[in-house]
Automatic annotation (TrEMBL):
Signal peptide: none annotated. GO terms for molecular function: endonuclease activity. This is DOD-type homing endonuclease domain-containing protein. It comes from Candidatus Nealsonbacteria bacterium CG_4_10_14_0_2_um_filter_40_15. Coiled coil: none annotated. Residues 233-320 form the DOD-type homing endonuclease domain. PROSITE patterns: INTEIN_ENDONUCLEASE. InterPro entries: Homing_endonucl, Intein_endonuc_central, LAGLIDADG_dom.
Amino acid sequence: MRRNDITPKLLRELYLKKLLSKQEIASRLKCNITTIHKKMVKFGIPARPVAKAIRIAMEKQIIKIPKSKLEHLYLKKKFSISEIAKKLNHDRSIIKREIEKHKIPLRSHSVIMKLIRSKNKIKKSVLAKLYYQKCLTQKQIGGKLNVHKETVHRLMKEYGLKTRKKSEISTRYPKFNFSGNLEEKAYLIGFRIGDLNVRLSHSKNLIIARCTSTKMAQIKLFKNLFKKYGHIYVGKIRGDRNREFLVRLNRTFNFLLPKKDNIPKWIWENKNYLLYFLAGYTDAEGCIGIGSNKVAFFKISSYDKKILKQICEQLFKIGIECNPPRIHVKKGHKKSDGCVYRNDEWRLNVNKKSSLLPLLQFLKPRLKHRKRLKDLIRTEQNIIERNQKILLKKRASFKYLPV
């Protein structure tokens, strides 16, 4: 329905002379405020500036806020004038005018700053998570939480959170603490003694674990073992077809530093930890398979004479018979590729089916090397099939016995 009754003369009278607002005119003429706005544009009646509209409203005292409400928001809830204005949908100047009118004391600048700090204070748990777990710098935390890095530094000092050393801060990739799981620890010690070169960095702040291999399965195993603790670097293939791969770890991996021809006491005193150690050592140095005579075998060859003897002794204790370790290759022997054995290479064998099958069953859930596990399953099946054949032969022989 067209409102032809809203004339330019009427609008000028109400808006310019009587100083009514658009909303007040719309209410009086029983129409929508949008209609009034469009008519004013059509008739060339300019809208009042915001400042003038507020002044008129203040003079007419259209906006009145109860003292009790302001005291509750400003004094009790500690809202700022801007926050109250936003909550009540009024201009900031109106809130300030009402506060002054009701003689509510305004806050000093120092009190305002203190309130802002307390409202925006970062929780200790949030700061610790970003700094220690996410490994962000103070500047990065500041950018993420929209505060200055000095504020982050001050809060960390206030909470007693220790800052990282410069050598740690400068590392490109984050480092994560060892899980603390003793089964994992026993496996990693076995794998380290067998196949890893481990040393401290020049800053003595990081531990560098490295390995070389031509096999992709070995590289994948290395990645799976350490990717949750640090960045894995894999080098280019060298002339001898080997490639180097390494990881930089934090000092929670100190247990990887020693390389002794000896199994730690806490490992060999516990059957479960011993088997995890043996799994790690087997993934590094072991071989599981079926010989040319179609007989299954398990063997480990290494320079670690004492460790092989300890493994042999501990296996006997859990009912697994194995041949005592013996020298397989003498020191100084030169291989076809030109490499020379720097020490005697010792070998531990388990060949008896009655011992080999339970050993494989012990290792099966603990091995992590994909090829080693595949070989184990094939070897295990070989023993089971041979046992079944022997059983069938025995049954056949009983069939022809006289009754």
